[in-house]
Amino acid sequence: MAKNQLRLGVNIDHVATVRNARGGAYPDPVRAAKLAEEAGADGITAHLREDRRHITDADIDALMAALNVPLNFEMAATEEMQRIALRHRPHAVCIVPEKREERTTEGGLDVAREENRLAHFIAPLRDAGCRVSIFIAADRRQIDAAHRIGAEVIELHTGAYCDYHAEGRFEDRDRELEALLEMSAYAHALGLEVHAGHGLTFDTVQPVAAFPEVKELNIGHFLIGEAIFCGLTPAVQEMRRLMDAARG
Hints:
Elements: E1 7-11, H1 13-22, H2 29-39, E2 43-47, H3 57-66, E3 71-75, H4 79-88, E4 92-95, H5 115-127, E5 131-136, H6 140-149, E6 153-157, H7 159-166, H8 170-189, E7 193-197, H9 205-209, E8 214-219, H10 221-230, H11 232-247
Parallel strand pairs: 1-2, 1-8, 2-3, 3-4, 4-5, 5-6, 6-7, 7-8
Helix pairs in contact: 2-3, 2-11, 4-5, 5-6, 7-8, 10-11
């Protein structure tokens, strides 16, 4: 990979959502992950939720066995998930907030409020060789807390930016984009690696991809939805093309 190239992580959770709607084995998230890998994904992201609403334990087992690119294992900060992560030792672990009633991850983790607990929670994961990422809003207080607890990576939540764009609230969108840009630079200056993701589409990806400090974008729901119309391989290839063009 070229030094300036932005990494693309493809989240395959919602292939499992479609599979689970019928309770069978099809479509297979591992097959989707391999297709994404062949189409230019630099990594695969999967979120094992407490309620197992999409990805299952068996999916994580199969992904760890099948992938030639790194697995980014998204999880809540629970003892159960810590045990699973320590058993598999994936390349990366991303700690995300999780509520049973939510449809999807609704915001960033409040690291500042749980700083002591999270510092102790991530220490064994780091000791096991996992790169620990914290999913947070573009907020200086949360970035400072993530840095203090020993996270190596932060992933900035781009959901509000994407929602404002979809709703036509362009002044709010531009303010959120400016905050994302400012906080990506701030986190980078602290020595944190900066990733971003949530809700990104073909229409919204390029402004974020152009941030020089951002090293990785994690994109899932849109790509799986777009695959219904054009196929997963073309969807991933087009996202890769847009990201590369933005990075120049």
